[in-house]
Amino acid sequence: MVRGLTIVLIAACLCGCSKEARDLGPSLPQTRPVDDNDARITAYQDNLYQVSQGGRYFSWYGCSSCHTDTAKGDLNLTDDRWHSGSGFAHVFGSIADRHGRLGFGARVPVEQLWQLTAYVRDLPKHYPEKRRRVELDQSSEPQGSSWSGPQ
Amino acid sequence: MTRDQDRLDRLDATWRDAPGLWGFLTTVDHKRIAARYIVTALLLMFLAGMLALDMRLQLSVPENTRMSPQLFNESFSLHGSTMLFLVSVPAMEAMAFWLVPLMLGARNMAFPRLGAFSYWLYLGGVLTLWIAHAMDITPDLGWFEYPPLSGPSYSPGHRADIWAQMITFTEVAALAASVNVAATILKMRPPGMTLARMPVFLWAMLIASIMTILSMPSIMLVTSMLIADRLVSTHFFSPAGGGDVLLFQHLFWFFGHPEVYIIFIPATGFISSIVETFSKRPIFGHSALVMSLMSIGALAFGLWVHHMFAVGLPQLGNGFYTAASMAIAVPAGLQIFCWIGTMWAGRPWLATPMLWVLGFVATFVVGGLSGVMTASAALDLQLTDTYFVVAHLHYVLIGGGIFPLFGAFCYWYPKATGRLMSERWGQIAFALIVGGFNLGFFPMHLLGLMGMPRRVYTYPAGMGWETLNQVATAGSAIAVLGGLVFVANALISYWRGAPSGPDPWGGSTLEWASASPAPSWNVAYTPVVDSLTPMWNDGRPLRAMDGIAIERREVLVTSVTDATPLYRQLSASPSIWPLIASLAVAAMFLGSIFTPWAVAIGAVPIGAALIGWFWPTRPRASTGPLRARS
Amino acid sequence: MVGTAMTRLFAMLPFLLLAGCDGIQTPLSPAGDQASALHQLLMLMTIVCGVVYGVVLVGIGWSLWRGHNHTTAFGDTPGDDRRLSRGLWTAAAAIVIGLTVLVVGSFIADRALFATRGKNAMEVRVTGHQWWWRIEYRDSTTGRLIETANELHLPLGRTTRLTLGSADVIHSFWVPNVSGKIDMIPGRRNTLDLTPRHLGWFRGQCSEFCGAQHAHMAFDVKVESPAAFDVWLATQTRPAPPPLDAVAARGQAVFAGPCAACHVVRGTDASGRAGPDLTHLASRHSIAAGTLPMTRGGLQGWIAQPQALKPGTSMPAVSLAPADADAVAHYLETLR
User: Which chains share 3+ C-beta pairs under 8 angstroms with C?
Assistant: First the structure.
């Protein structure tokens, strides 16, 4: 029993916990996802740091000014209903190409689009209390072109 | 009374542990538990020291890219958390566990199974933090993770939760250990050892235990509040939600400041014992030392705001907390006077333990004085969060905690193992460690005064900080080398050291009455004490009494102030329940990192384990209520 | 033993101290009223504490020497104990007196730090972000806030009152040459008065661990004459001039894509508040919160590889064609 436990422990240590990994630095994909099964997707969608970075850029690029918590219809990102499919590449395309004159595809670097996509696809799984809590903490963060002052 | 072999054999039979792994898992022998604590703490000290060396290498060169900022932040967080929560306090508790019954002529602690439980829980904390590190979920926000940085919005994932729960493990373990030590010291002293005749070591352990009991709830509360903020979205530390970021700091430091005195006060106990023995005279100023310890213990609870001088609190408090923080130098200074006075009036003999006392005084006083400088609310605004305060904290914690610990280790090593450590290698280790430490950390005072902040993974070239950083790295490396020599000495002496006999130093307190190494039952008879130095006793022989049973595990319980015998208490036998209970508690603590339901569901196995633990094993007494005999 | 290492260190001490004495980020070279008061207190404390340490070392040395020569029999000696008791009271009195001196000194310095409260001062609002400084001067005539980033200008001899806040986590504002530090805490407004007395450039750095790039969150402080300060502030108030050549115009066009989403350049459509205001970027001493010099090389390096220079920074790596990157850098250099 002890031997089995040791093996499990060593295995856990070796594979690490990629969900929690924090890759700071220039190891960025500078190209869009190829399709919904692009091998790079898990490094973003399953990584808590990348998803949370997506959340911060969501505010900084001003997404939260339209996609509020009480938005209805298409603007509501928390209801798990997708305009053109929920696959990663589809949502990526929605953000980058289908926001009309906001033109995020040209204005937002590719790395950040990956993070934003991961965040948006994660949103339906967040509890409302957690979303509200994060919103309170980040109420002094800049939102697009507006900043309301320090907390 | 002479010891006959038959009595010793019967004591062996009563007090020995089962052989092999089962004995290892079920033992309630305070010496074996303490040995585990010390081995674990020393191993962690080594690991944390390696982290420190890694950081020092990183900082030797400006704009160094060897370590990523993530790795560096994890390193200083792990280093600080390990040293403060997993090494310093547990090592002091371990010395108490090991020495208190021996110094009281008692056969075990007041709550033997609770002692085993506290070790297993401490081990749980160690594994929580270090297995998380192996799995790359290392906490990376420092050893006091202030929100909002550690809150749900700026620290995604479970790293901060791992840190918070590691603290919960270690604090419950510390609480259990402290209750045990305090009860033993208050209620299990040998007849005649009134509070006035209690050695300073025991006073120190008693006061440190009471301080632990009073301060631990604060940190358990604050880390639970942090987990609640992160897990169930409470608003304790969310200003926009009606909470307050400073609440965390107040609650944390209300624990955090007494914590460093919980580390320092047992060290003063070690120093008092060593100075007494190696000056060959009773310690000068026993009352002054005891009252100094009490004042430090009390004052320590009124100083926590000095960790927050830069947060912009009302000016009115600055004068008060400055004066209080400086005032604690009075009892500390008086203690130093008493120790030096004892040496002055005695015949000091510089064996290795005494060398460590000298190293302690020379180093700790620097830390105390830099502490007086940072105690000023005004000047602290230039010194806090710089390398000056890094230097200060290491001088007081290493100089005032680790050096006495090393001295105590050398002093009581013969009692634990029956061997003597090599004096020559002890001196070499001492010189390397103390010299290396001072070379390594003194320059940090200057670096802080030259403007280098703390917790930075690199710094710009051209600030003039390179040379001192390199000196600091060299010194730290020398100190680590000395540490390796120290450990090698301890290991090699275990097999090849000269046999020590029961009392190689001519000690003054009761632990030197038992054999070396102390057998599982500690002492064959109960000593009767009528002086502060029972083993010297002004030349008279040490009296002993008989009467505690030897066919079953029994200890003597005495009154709190006068130590008059009250009754005989059945002492708990080896049991697997502490291990099972700690596994159940560990499961609940770890589960609550992921879901709040773990608290409710986890309570069931804990309840079951406690029921098993406390299941009555003997019939009710039929002799009526206990009465003290006149 | 311990002695040799310590003696050598103390001998080196004066030289090491002098080495850092005239730095641009040190409390040892006070350039303002607040830092001067604290510097005097530091000197007082160093002297008192140094004397105390000397006394302790002499005490140990004397005790060991005396003990070595001790010939009395084993046990305590009543005469010695009486002398030690008197010594204990003396030591207690000496410690209390010494600490009283230091407490009074601290109280006086503390009052000096608060001496300018209630007096008129120029208001500046400084907000900490991860990992840069948003600095806003209040225009006394219009009441509007004039925004800049990562560089603070102070008029010589006048008091500037900083209102410190944070947009995210706890930071700490510290310019050691001018004053002590004060934390920037979400949900609180802290005030710091600065009264500089020497001209020149100084450096400040964040002093409360605030995440991955805490080490690279610094800022520049320029103390200049009131006249020069007024000129500087007037320049900061103006919007950016239009681009003067084709390359700069191309740069501005490229900037309007990825850069404008996060940065403001007043006078253009670039209005993102997430990152530092770049309207007068080229007039600054450094970029990226004190990480790189404000030079062509610094600019191009930062734009091309922010994650390599400051891993984890919020500035994304934007992939630009080399000609576009050159144009943007050229354009930014015109934003004086």
Answer: A, B
pLDDT tens-digit readout, B308-327? 999 999 988 999 999 999 99
Average of per-residue pLDDT across B614-629 = 71
Calpha distance B279→B339 (Å, rounded): 10
Distance separating alpha carbons of residues A144 and B14, to the nearest angstrom: 76
pLDDT over 70 percentage in chain B: 98
| Closest partner CB to A13 (pick from B135, B140, B238) | B135
Q: Which of C146, C104, C92, C100 is nearest to C123 (CA)?
A: C146
CATH topology of domain A40-67+77-145: Cytochrome Bc1 Complex; Chain D, domain 2 (1.10.760)
Instruction: Map out the domains of chain C as residue ranges.
Output: 22-62+81-237, 246-333
- Dist. CA C243–CA C258, nearest whole Å: 18
Put simply, whether C316 touches A (Cβ < 8 Å) is yes
Chain C residues with CB inside 8 Å of A30's CB? Answer: 317, 319
Q: Which residues of B touch A137 (CB under 8 A)?
A: 148, 151-154, 238, 240
With cut-offs at 50, 70 and 90, classify the pLDDT of residue A115.
Answer: very high
Identify residues of A whose CB sits under 8 angstroms from chain C CBs.
24-26, 28, 30, 56, 59-62, 106-112, 137-138, 140-147, 149-151
Q: How many Cβ atoms are within 10 Å of B611's Cβ, its own excluded? A: 11
C132: helix, strand or coil:
strand
Q: Do B240 and A136 touch (CB under 8 A)?
A: yes
CB B60 within 8 A of CB C302: no
Q: Where are the domains of chain A?
A: 40-67+77-145
For B367-424, the pLDDT digits (tens) are: 999 999 999 999 999 999 999 999 999 999 999 999 999 999 999 999 999 999 999 9
Q: What pLDDT, on a 0 to 100 scale, did the predictor assign at position C318?
A: 87
CATH 2.60.40.420 corresponds to the domain C22-62+81-237: yes
* Cβ pairs B/C, distance under 8 A: 283
Compute the average pLDDT of residues C206-226.
97
Reported ipTM: the value is: 0.93
pTM for the whole structure: 0.94
Chain C residues close to A56, C-beta within 8 Å: 314
Which fold, C246-333?
A: Immunoglobulin-like (2.60.40)
A145 vs B: CB within 8 A: no
Given a cut of 90, whether residue A101 has pLDDT beyond it is: no
CA distances (Å), origin B479, targets A92, B347, B432, B475: 55, 30, 6, 6
Cβ–Cβ gap C317/A140 under 8 Å:
no
* Contact residues, chain A, for B240 at CB < 8 Å: 136-137, 139-140, 151
Counts of helices then strands in chain A (DSSP H, E): 8, 0
Domains of chain B as residue ranges with CATH = 5-575 (1.20.210.10)
